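Input set for joint prediction.
Command: fold jointly, output tokens.
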Amino acid sequence: MNDLETRQLRYFVAVAEELNFGRAAERLGMAQPPLSRAIRELERQLGVVLLERTTRRVELTASGQTLLRDARIALDAVTAAGRRAQHAGEARPQLRVALKADVDGGLLPRILEEYAAQETGHPATLVLGRYGEQATTLRDGRADVGLLLLDAADARGLDSEPLLTEPFLLAVAADDPLATYSEVCLADLGGRTMPDGKLADQGPLSGEECGFVPGERWQRTASGYWSAAGGLGTSGAMGVSGTLGSLGASGASAASDLPEIFRLIELGTIVCYFPASLTHRYPRPDIVYLPVNDLPPATLAVAWPQDSHSTAVAAFVRAATAVAAAAALV
Amino acid sequence: MNDLETRQLRYFVAVAEELNFGRAAERLGMAQPPLSRAIRELERQLGVVLLERTTRRVELTASGQTLLRDARIALDAVTAAGRRAQHAGEARPQLRVALKADVDGGLLPRILEEYAAQETGHPATLVLGRYGEQATTLRDGRADVGLLLLDAADARGLDSEPLLTEPFLLAVAADDPLATYSEVCLADLGGRTMPDGKLADQGPLSGEECGFVPGERWQRTASGYWSAAGGLGTSGAMGVSGTLGSLGASGASAASDLPEIFRLIELGTIVCYFPASLTHRYPRPDIVYLPVNDLPPATLAVAWPQDSHSTAVAAFVRAATAVAAAAALV
DNA sequence: CGCCTTTGATACTCTGAAGGTATGAATGAC
DNA sequence: GTCATTCATACCTTCAGAGTATCAAAGGCG
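tokens >
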């Protein structure tokens, strides 16, 4: 078997995601026939059928599903290789820290201060992204280290160290009937929607595209072992592509920035989950934050590519854990 | 920046490893001029100088070193994607278990038995390889799960669970002066060589190509965090490409299979380190096994690609840890 | 100091793989 | 049965990648 080219993987991922050759070709900026041929050639090379296609429907085979997962990972690794090389070539190397603005447990200033004190020669710069993007940002080489909510991130390929755990709070309009409650549970939220259009009673994390075998629940233990866990106790914590302001490509009436989201919450159009520390930063008269008693808490962590070997990353991780440990004592 | 092609990465890795365009071209089965052009084009795409070249010498820049590391990882990910897709397309899917024959702490039969009892529908098959190859075998998709010595493996991209710890024993000829000792230390071994031609007083693990920043020592803590550790206490445990029967491409008088190695040990030509459990399996009148008092012990672990999501892998890991735990009680 | 070997770069040619256009054929909706 | 949709096929075109021949610079050496 000759080695695959990234072009072939990109083509396949496009088709596998669109499940439609025409749309995939359009997305790739090419005509449909050469795309069909390329996929056929890929299947011939691998000796495996990846897509079951009729003129009306395209479906992934088991091989195709496997390849979709692994091709995404491989493509990330390739772009990461390029980007890291570019970054290493810059005159004044920097430590790129990925995070979603305000999702830092209030620790960011102290972490940056502590990190700067370590004099690594790599000043820190922030790479701000939307909620849930941080893991990908680390995997494809746009950042060196990140702060993210472990439960919302697909941590594959990353190592991480938890910093703190805090509950999600539900933000609702002050004139919502729920606002009089001292706490709510998910079942109380029937019908209310989140910024991404999903139903609020599913919790803050979208489980779609989680990449896990349907019907299986996996969770990571402290020692790094993935075990199948039967129960649903932690099922909310396995999402991958987070919500909270992210708007999917398909999102119809999705809001993406915080001011917009707060406005819609005040109007009663949507509700939204926020980590508790973030809510302290946005006290607003017309919004009430409520504890949700059957929602697992959020774990803020510092994360980095598993194959990282930079001293600056290690220094940042040390700084982050030290600050978190100090904060936990207060 | 357009995405890189794996062809470009393969070309670069070849040149970076050979540090000579002509030899690299030969290895790639192509002429030298197009290779030179391809590398130049790669540098242009990235906007970075990867190689400092005169007509007499080729050297890696900092960017080039970074790219060499990451390109290897990315290429492994690409081939893994292809192989896993092929594997998923097979009629009767199997669990491919990578190991070096006899390096299993004596647990393999019981692990296989325990695994078979779990009825995953994926019968186990063994993928035998040379010592130290298991990690790569897992990364590039030739196997789904493996048994390996953690200290000898480059565990990047893998998750693992330790099974047991046992000392390395030194195998020497019965008529060697050392054979009368009850135990030895590394300093006693001056001048003796190992199967790969390296000096025995360096311990069983080759530190070359370890990929870590020179002058830094890294070790993995229980929680998955890589920390810089100043001391040399565990320095022997960071090797990547193991020895013990592997013969490097450069190896001149290297021996590769066990019978051959034992013969050379009997003749006094070489000495060799083996995990204790393996020596029990090869009692030979003309070979003496000695404890080495300043050598860190070997940790046998079960390992799997970090992004694995297979129930069969999880079942195997459960089986392995259960058997190891039971064995530890005896 | 000058010759020679080694080795990467340049100039040019050529081939084939990747992409485009036109069209066919199958499938499901109505 | 008709029609729209969508994937496959046939055929053509182009340029990127590979080859050959050659140049030029850098060390080694007498």
